[in-house]
Amino acid sequence: MNETPANPVTQHGLASTDNHNRSGGPPDTSEAGRPVSDLPASDSPASDSPASNSTASDSPAATNAADHAASAGDAVSADPMPAATVTLEDFAAALVRHGILLPPNQVELLDRYRRLLWEWNEKLNLTRHTDLDRFVGRDIVDSWQLAQLLNPGETVLDFGTGGGVPGVVVAIMRPDVKVAVCDSVGKKAKAVESMIGKLKLGIPVFAQRVEAVLGRRRFDTLMARAVGSLTDVLGWIGPGWKSAGRLLLVKGPRWVEERGDARHRGLMRGLALRVAATYPMPGTESNSVILKLWRDPRGETGSDTGS
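RESULT FIELD:
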C-alpha cells in the first residue's frame, strides 16, 4: 500500500480543522472548514484543552495519556542542561551518547527543530522535555527507534503529534519516507506548521482527528507516542484500519496491562500484535517498546514476541 496522501489544501499541506476533542463529540462549527494557517495564534478550537491529546477512559491502563513518559518519571538527569545554554555541539554529543549517528546536515536540522520547539513551548504547552537530556533521551530516541522500522517510500501518518514528535523528527532522519502529521488541537497544528515552514520540510499537517484523516487518505503506517492507552488508540482508529497498513505505537512498561484491557473490550478482534522493538528507557530500569499492530483476518493473536 503506497498511496501518497492527496494534495494538501494549503502551502504546507494543512487540511481544514475538524475540531473534535479526543473524547469525541461534535465539531466546533464556528471554526469548521478553516485552514490551520488562518487561525490566529490566540484562537482556541473546541478541542483546545490540556487533555486534548488523550481520551478519558475507565480503563485502568488509561490513567495518563502520556503513559510512556509518566512511567519513567522523566528522571533522565539530576542536573539537566538549561535550554539557553545548549549548543549544536552539545546536541551532537548527546546524540552520540545515545548511539544515534546521523549525517551532519540532519544533526543541524534536528537542532534547529529543537530550538524552534522550545521557543514555541514558551507560548504554548507542546512538550515537557525542555532540557537536552530529556529531549534526546526520550523524544529523539523514540523517534530514532521508529525510524528504523520504516521502509523506503512508505507513507506515514503521525497522529496526536503535539509539537511534532515523532513525525517531524522521523521526517528529518528518514527523508526517503513520506511523513504527514495530525493533531486535533488547532493551535498545536498551527505551531507545527510554522516550524515545518521555517525548516523547509514538505510535511503535510492536518488539524484533524486521526479518524477524520483516515476517512480521506491512505497510509502504509500510522505511528504515535504518548497519546493515550491502547484502548483509546484502537477506539480512535476504528474503521480507519481499511486506510492503514499497520500501526507502530511507542509504549512504556504498562503495555501488557493495556493489551489485556483492549482484548477485554473486543478491540483486538481481527488484529495481530507483535513487539517490534524493545530498548532501555533512559534514567529508569524500565524498557520502552514499539508495538506493531495490523489487520489479521484469522483473528486476534496478540503475541508479545517477534516482529
